[in-house]
Amino acid sequence: MIQPMSTLFLRTLRQDPVDAEVPSHRLLVRAGYIRRVAAGIYTLLPLGKRVVDRVAAVVRAEMDAIGGQEILLPALLPREPYEQTGRWTDYGPELFRLTDRRGGDYLLGPTHEEMMTLLVKGEYSSYRDLPLVIYQVQTKYRDEPRPRSGIIRGREFIMKDSYSFTADDAGLDRAYADHRQAYQRIFTRLGLDYRIVTAMSGAMGGSRSEEFLAPTPIGEDTFVTCAVCGYAANEEVAEVMVPPRAAAGQPPEAAGGPGGHPPVTRVATPDAPNVEPLVAHLMAAGIPLTAGDVLKTLLFRLDTGPVAGPADQIAAVLVPGDREVDPDRLATLVAPRRATLLAEPDFAARPELVRGYVGPVGLGALGIPVFADVRVSPATAWVTGANEPGHHALNVVVGRDFTPERVARLSAVAVGDPCPVCGSPLALDRAIEIGHIFQLGRKYTDTFGFDVTGPDGAPQRVTMGSYGVGISRAVAAIAEQNHDDAGLVWPAAVAPYDVHVVPVGRKDEVRAAAADIAARADAAGLAVLLDDRGVAAGVAFADADLIGVPTIVIVGRALADGEVEIHDRTTGHRDRVALADVITRVTPADGTARVAPVGAAGSAAGRA
Ligand code: ATP
Ligand code: MG
Asked: In terms of residue numbers, what domain contains 505?
């Protein structure tokens, strides 16, 4: 097909949109791929629709290749199934709930485990019917607390979600492995740089789960990797080796267990409510220590409802002074309650809690549970707040002077922490989550009592997996990883067009040569964008760079020598090519890099 730019529904913008903070958002708006309708809600313009369709076509082809069958469930769903699994409530304010004219409760699907389970339960009854993989490419709704970065985090977005139904755990392992491989092929074909990391299962339930992450500095996820052994995990679940801790100011052997620690001593530490001034003060007083010898006691309010008025409960979280609390891990520990750092009004209401000088000793008696990081191990001694203004306590020993109610991995992983597998220093990087695969097990089939008859005639509980790809988010992730100062630079497999033909000037022979190249490229099965607008060369070039079709054919001065210039946006390379050779040059050498047109839905079929 040939798309003349003169009639393309497109207006590029010279200015960055004011609300756009990240490059992909800025460029997708400026180059005319998307337009904002409301927070986290976007319209796809023709260019954007084409890229989304091409990404979806790759996803569909790879899902079909592992035996997946495409269906389409409604987005508007009844409350009851979600009530049964508890997600009507557990999803919290993220769920879009609505009421129909009869007062019935409905929701806009954030993900479809409930409906898929019920659907298959309604049709299948024997182990012989399994395994089954069904999927859909569908619009999902989540009232995200912080919709941002354009289509990276939308409140309405397009997801491919698939679901496997198998007779046993071995079947689930196979379906999971199939999806894992299909996802590797998908993201490779999409030209994405990605990592597979161990992940948390979250509201989805189930056991094994991995995320596919596209590294980029603007990503909202952080993941850890070990360059030596390949360990990779989302920071929310990353393990680290915890080396045994020496007691403050002395080697571990000198400490000799809880009995070997000197008794707690109170010291005056005026104006030292934070770790740094405290360490400086004690050092000056001749007590050698580092921030890692101090125990930070952070107070959080735990609330079920809104965070206003008195807290439902207050809890203390203990981490070493050189560590930060990981908010995600704390959230998991206290869920479904929400943890918020104690603020001034909370302290005012509880004068026994001395801001800046809180320590763990005696908190239990005040009804404040103590949650300790794993590093705060039994028999270790720490410097803590003394619960008295301007005072700290030395030699506070875990298990002797206080006992934590819960011990969990609560401190954030830091760059250089030892890898849990091999001990080498870990790296931390940011990324966008583009896919997520889960072994759900029997969470949903238990709820809905989905059994099939086994080979022995006895009922057998079905095992499930669920697997998501953020289609619209992947488009933004690709843009995030593939752009330069001038604009987008699409990988060939997902570009809205294969070639962008730009005639320079209005001379008839130039325009005729450009039209001829477009016609020949079209005949060769390529999708062509032809700049027939007759605009100034500078404008045409700027738009071509902005739009990001990877191969730009410039018809201009070189025409006098029977040649055109080919600009490769990916490499920046510019090359003169004889008119006769243009089509061979612009046809992707590797046919697999392009979307398989045969039978594929959407615009891919139209392109063939
Ligand atoms: P996140 O942690 O980023 O909120 P999630 O873990 O809630 O994502 P899943 O429930 O695993 O996401 O959904 C599957 C895929 O759908 C994700 O891997 C992601 O690519 C995509 N996705 C999730 N939420 C959004 C959103 N708000 N906008 C666009 N894509 C999304
Ligand atoms: Mg996820």
From this structure: 499-586
